[in-house]
Amino acid sequence: xxxxxxxxxxxxxxxxxxxxxxxxxxxxxxxxxxxxxxxxxxxxxxxxxxxxxxxxxxxxxxxxxxxxxxxxxxxxxxxxxxxxxxxxxxxxxxxxxxxxxxxxxxxxxxxxxxxxxxxxxxxxxxxxxxxxxxxxxxxxxxxxxxxxxxxxxxxxxxxxxxxxxxxxxxxxxxxxxxxxxxxxxxxxxxxxxxxxxxxxxxxxxxxxxxxxxxxxxxxxxxxxxxxxxxxxxxxxxxxxxxxxxxxxxxxxxxxxxxxxxxxxxxxxxxxxxxxxxxxxxxxxxxxxxxxxxxxxxxxxxxxxxxxxxxxxxxxxxxxxxxxxxxxxxxxxxxxxxxxxxxxxxxxxxxxxxxxxxxxxxxxxxxxxxxxxxxxxxxxxxxxxxxxxxxxxxxxxxxxxxxxxxxxxxxxxxxxxxxxxxxxxxxxxxxxxxxxxxxxxxxxxxxxxxxxxxxxxxxxxxxxxxxxxxxxxxxxxxxxxxxxxxxxxxxxxxxxxxxxxxxxxxxxxxxxxxxxxxxxxxxxxxxxxxxxxxxxxxxxxxxxxxxxxxxxxxxxxxxxxxxxxxxxxxxxxxxxxxxxxxxxxxxxxxxxxxxxxxxxxxxxxxxxxxxxxxxxxxxxxxxxxxx
Length: 626
Known about the structure:
Strand order of the largest sheet: 1-2
Shape: globular
Number of helices: 30
Distance between the termini: 38 Å
Radius of gyration: 27 Å
Largest sheet: 2 strands, antiparallel
Strand content: under 5%
């Protein structure tokens, strides 16, 4: 790989290191914040270098694919491979890697080199799967994830011509044969959804069955004698059995369950013959069989629960390889999934859930120090989605707060700042115009507003702190500082308002704040902002959420840390922006509050001193002690 490409990788790794917590925090908050500002200044410089490199050495050559030389194409493919090693999960940038390899497909198809074309299809499919995992957050993001699922299916279809003719397959090199077999295995992932859909589940099963029939064919096996076919069959049966994860504990036809059950039996038989097989943790295999048995009424719920308890207990709480990550987090996710679909089971699971929720939080908390932070981000989404609140357990609000501080300290600081700025604005509004708050929290008179001011402040503080809750589902994208975002990545982040609403309204401790998450990006005029279909009509607390819109912009625009794409604005510039967009983006009654010099002084103090202290407390001390 040429030096320019390797330099991009080095800069990207450097950006990642600079965005992580500082190891040295001596000198107090001011010194810490000054160093962190300098780090993000350097990140912006490196980002600009990366941006220019991508424009000149990647985007321009790929625009005219016909003119690409074979050498240029091979360099770009090697660059894509380095950006995202899907085998080791060392992924610098899986979305950019997919963009490159999908653009190269036509070149390799047209130049007649089968080996390189198949490798391109293999990489394109693997990368589409990994990008799809980032985008796939349920029905809300179905449209965005759809093109990556379609890519998986299209790559598998294009690869079929090299497998359908056994002589053609036999003539290929070993590595290319392995890639073709893997392409067909992964075709089924194009039908995966994080929710129950019976037809798509049947499509998954049929796809795996087709693959198993092919690799069980003696003639096909003979064509590739160096492939370990029993290991390949074991993997295929395991993947087929694991389709049960997409049943989401719904009542499922027995013919589907029987096929999954039989796949588990075949996998266990192969495991018995090859006891040194390390492809899959045996505990996970037995737990899957137990879950299928529960679906079929063959296994009691207590026995099923015991298997999940054992699976977690056998995992090393200090190890962060893929097997131990699954063992530490997924058992409680599965049990919470059962309880979500069958609430009557919560009492039986109570003790396990209570202990496991604490264990998973501690495990996720230490992931950053173990170098597993990026891989753990996907597990975090599962925990948030399936979390069950227990009366005597960790409330979702506190679990979420701690999780945000651990996994996204910059977001934690932002949400804390928004809450405090919003409180300052509310205090001024109550002092000057309490009548503007009639209807808020069901207050009927200005006098009632004054009497319940602290209650309203407490509610607004919670709204401010949780307004960006949905962003925790998109950490892979939000933490990407090494290049500008693609259009679909911007659109994904815009879905955080709806994701936040969905996740907050499902739990008792956070339900009151769900509306704030939904509406904080909606403009005052009801036309601009997002979500497009959201509206302030009939919303009794609308003015509080409009306060959040102001506070959100004030903090985001003036913070030079955690915002790699542009330099921060001055407080004076942001005041001018508020006035310029008054009546359109911002509520004019709220903009007028800043004519009060006391409010300006209070907010300016928050943006300067308080922000600095928060970064030191959350992003410095916490991880130094951790």
